Amino acid sequence: MSRTKPNRRTVLAAMGLGLATVGCGSTEAPNGRPVPSCVLTPEGTEGPYYVDTALERRDIREGRPGVPVELRVTVVNASSCAPLQDAVVDIWHADAHGVYSGVRDGDESRFLRGIQHTDQAGVATFSTVFPGWYDNRTVHIHVKVHLGGDEIHTGQLYFAEEVIAAVAAIPPYVERTEARIDNDGDFLFPRGGPRSLLALTGDPVSGYLAEITMGVTT
């Protein structure tokens, strides 16, 4: 499916679901689940590996090896934190060996790329794998958020360093010979990266649930 390329607008992010929100400006919902506050987050770079595929699918793995990750991105109204339905979330990232699909001449592959529309709860869910590292970058996932055809956020989502280290110690990641840059050594992470950390539950054997909530102006 194709959509009109949206114009860049201010986007805010509400981070840290679950227990990770305690002490971070969250309030408690009637069901006892913490509700994140909406916090301004800076725009991030698109990077050189974006491919405008408009490939709508939940499972973006295409058989790529790696630790399973279920990524849940919730899009909410920045003023009220109410969920927004039918926002378009576009993600792409490197595979376990640090390789992006579709960026070399003649490469028609599209693994680890896809879009999802948010549901009534404002949630877009992807089945993917834990990314690898490359070119002096820490581990990250690229994301764009489109709303109504003319709203956009371009940014990057990050993982806690202790989780990256645990994953890097097992196959296929441990097979990498390229040195890994940690979050503190990454040249982009200091520009809002701490406010773009995914809330993670799980382990390197069974996989991870990765969650983040992003508030947008409408």
TrEMBL record:
The cross-references to InterPro entries, in alphabetical order and at most eight, read:
Intradiol_dOase_C, Intradiol_dOase_core, TAT_signal
Q: Which Gene3D superfamilies match?
A: Aromatic compound dioxygenase
- Keywords from the named record: Dioxygenase, Oxidoreductase
Q: Which GO terms describe its molecular function?
A: ferric iron binding; oxidoreductase activity, acting on single donors with incorporation of molecular oxygen, incorporation of two atoms of oxygen
Source superkingdom = Bacteria
Would the keyword Oxidoreductase turn up in this protein's UniProt record?
yes
Pfam families, per database record: Dioxygenase_C
Give the residue range of the signal peptide: none
List residues of the Intradiol ring-cleavage dioxygenases domain.
46-138
Among CDD domains, the record links this protein to: intradiol_dioxygenase_like (cd03457)
Keyword Oxidoreductase part of the UniProt annotation: yes
What is the protein's given name?
Protocatechuate 3,4-dioxygenase beta subunit
